[in-house]
Amino acid sequence: MAKFLEFQGKEWLRKSGLPVPQGRVASTPEEAKKVAEEIGKAVAVKGQVQAGGRGKAGIVKLVNTPDEAAAAAEEILAKTIGGNPIKQVLIEEKLDIKKEYYCSFVINGAREARSPMLMFSAEGGMEIESVPEELLFKVNIDPINGLQIYDALDVCARAGIPAQDLNKFASFLSKLSQAYKKLDCQTLEINPFVMTGSGNLVCADCKMEIDNSSVGRHPEFGIKIARDLPGAPTELDLIGWSIEETDARGTGFLMNMGYDEVSPGYIGYHPIGGGSAMMGLDALNQVGLKPANYADTSGNPVGSKIYRVAKSVLSQPNIDGYLLGGFMMANQEQWHHAHAIVKVLQEILPTQKPGLPCVLLLCGNREDESLEILRTGLADLMTPDGPGKRIEIYGKEYVTDTKFIGQRLLALSKDYRAEKESQGK
């Protein structure tokens, strides 16, 4: 799911006619001070990062003056949460909170539902896991007609909302439901939304996640990459998305796996099929090697798409090897992989990465022909002193032997790194 930061989600709520606190985002302490001056009263300074429990992490602070806002922003912007540096803070008015509530719109994947679902509680401000089950009220939503006002009234009444406030709450939830549908959200969580001292309902926080498949309908979002990522997209992630976005023939998934380009033991990982990819990860983990990336070329992609993915994997700097992990008897035509891998290795190994270990496991449809394409096409590289001297090619006899594949990669990568160190590289 494409995930929005809090300030981004709130901006789309505001455009949808929903009440959000006055404020805007800042990237420096100086900007934070200026925004606080514009607001002209006590403010909240909130670190913008994809993580829950921000209050406990110390990246949400309430301050009374612009100078205090600048100091709080400086402290928060110096922090890293879950490996993600905080690059922006949201400066917004401090609300006069009378009571906090929780609501979220999610997909209920249960077989008998398969629909959006509203979850509502009068116990807001807590993580959803902390809300007692008997205080969390749920209602499935018609995916065509949306949340009906009588369902909203019912769930609010069950949650203990006073009779005089039922219409206000039901109208608020109905507008949220309309925004959820209009914006093609997968998740829309407002925790908390609050009732102020004057009786108004305001979205004090916002977690918004957009259905990846709908991103093409929303150019206004400016989403660079419609893919689930642990943090901001890396250059490799953007390259992988450009491959997938421009060629729908089979899968060409490619993403960074936290590769730091400095530490030894990283392998360019190119599995075939998401399920069998786990076996390749086991092969690496068993021997202490690490995947620099995750790639997947399954679903019978054409050779040109496989070539683009493989070249991106092999172009990563300072990797200690490359694994083509076909840990499955694939029903796709494997000679597309063979032709693509031959072309990539012929381009990369002689000039850019001579001697790089390359363990190629390929099996399934057209296996014999595919292995012959690899052996013949790479023969000139695989001489004892050639740039492909550490290429090893395997077929179905090793399809489940992760231990063997891992051990071969480890032995070859140790030899490769020792050779590079002896040459002062």
Note down, in words, how this protein is organized.
One of its GO terms (cellular component) is cytosol. This is Succinyl-CoA synthetase, beta subunit. Pfam families: ATP-grasp_2 (PF08442). One of its GO terms (biological process) is tricarboxylic acid cycle. With 425 residues, the chain is an alpha+beta fold. The chain folds into 3 domains: 22-93, ATP-grasp fold, A domain (Dna Ligase, domain 1, 2-Layer Sandwich); 97-221, 2-Layer Sandwich (D-amino Acid Aminotransferase, Chain A, domain 1), CATH 3.30.470.20; 235-423, Succinyl-CoA synthetase domains (Rossmann fold), CATH 3.40.50. The protein is built from 11 helices and 20 strands. Strands 1, 8, 9, 10, 11, 12 and 13 form a 7-stranded antiparallel β-sheet that branches. A hairpin with a 6-residue loop joins β8 (97-108) and β9 (115-121). α4 crosses α5 (166-182) and α7 (274-286) crosses α11. The chain starts with a strand and ends with a helix.
Please give a handful of descriptors for the protein shown.
single chain, 425 residues, alpha+beta, Dna Ligase, domain 1, D-amino Acid Aminotransferase, Chain A, domain 1, Rossmann fold, seven-stranded antiparallel β-sheet, five-stranded parallel β-sheet, 11 helices, Succinyl-CoA synthetase, beta subunit, succinate-CoA ligase (ADP-forming) activity, ligase, ATP_grasp_subdomain_1
